Amino acid sequence: MMEEQVNQEVISMPRIGDPAPEFTAVTTQGEINYPSDYEGNWSILFSHPADFTPVCTSEFMTFATMESQFEALNCKLIGLSIDGLYSHIAWLRTIKEKIEYKGMKDIEVTFPLIEDISMDVAKKYGMIQPNEDSTKAVRAVFFVDPKGIIRAMIYYPLSLGRNFDELLRVVTALKAADEFSIATPADWRPGDDVIVPPAGSCGTAQDRMEGKEDMTCYDWFFCTKKLDEETVWKAIKK
């Protein structure tokens, strides 16, 4: 039993609020130093299991199609898998020249895709999870703010393709929360009511209950207020 515990590999995983682990890597768009090269921008660092696989292909086509929506939020995309640079280039060329999916065709991926044959980056970010696969990265997503701090992360197994509308919603909600000092309720979209943080940051509990803070309060701990869609987009778009 003791021998099994000694031989068991310890998986390092960064946490929300931690500085994003630093690395230098070769990508399809040249060398990058992360996160320093992205200072002043939001970024999404995401991993996929392998090139030339169907679920990953559908994801890259979707990300590439939506890239302008992330760019509008000052958010850069960076992909990674445990494949070599030439494999990446060949796969992306195949996507552009041969693959058509859900009306998407002739899709060119212009964001960087990291070569990580050594697994150095994948291990720093806990993308290798042996009980899922010891030689492929799971579908991890890290949302990193302009100061290089991890603000959110989502992990998916190899078989499950990601919901890209949700990834865009996460960036939108994080930026709105920072800009307006609010929280966002379940399924929030710009234009929906937002949550006002508990008393102490915005008036007294009595003020909240009496509606003196331009809010609707259902109890002292649950208050909402209007925040119109145009105001949100104007504040969070670059």
Q: What features would you describe in this structure?
A:
The protein contains 7 helices and 12 strands. With 238 residues, the chain is an alpha+beta fold. The protein has 2 domains: 161 residues, Glutaredoxin (3-Layer(aba) Sandwich), CATH 3.40.30.10; 56 residues, Antioxidant, Horf6, Chain A, domain2 (Antioxidant, Horf6, Chain A, domain 2), CATH 3.30.1020. Strand 8 and strand 9 form a beta hairpin. It is globular and about 60 Å long. The N and C termini lie far apart (55 Å).
Q: What would CATH call the architecture of the largest domain?
A: 3-Layer(aba) Sandwich
CATH class of the largest domain equals: Alpha Beta
Instruction: Give the full name of the CATH homologous superfamily of the largest domain.
Output: Glutaredoxin
Largest sheet: 5 strands, mixed
> Number of domains in the coordinates?
2
Unreliable stretches: 1-7, 201-205
Structural class: alpha+beta
Share of helical residues: 25-40%
Mean pLDDT across all residues, rounded?
91
Say what oligomer this is.
single chain
Give me the CATH fold name of the largest domain.
Answer: Glutaredoxin
Shape: globular
Distance between the termini: 55 Å
SSE order: HEEEHEHEEEHEEHEHEEH
Number of strands: 12
Keyword list:
single chain; 238 residues; alpha+beta; Glutaredoxin; Antioxidant, Horf6, Chain A, domain 2; 2 domains; five-stranded mixed beta sheet; three-stranded antiparallel beta sheet; 31% helix
In short:
The protein has 2 domains: 2-162, 3-Layer(aba) Sandwich (Glutaredoxin), CATH 3.40.30.10; 181-236, Antioxidant, Horf6, Chain A, domain2 (Antioxidant, Horf6, Chain A, domain 2, 2-Layer Sandwich). The protein has helices at 2-7, 54-71, 85-98, 120-124, 164-180, 205-209, 229-236; strands at 23-27, 30-34, 42-47, 75-81, 100-101, 104-105, 113-115, 139-144, 150-156, 194-196, 216-219, 222-225. It is globular and about 60 Å long.
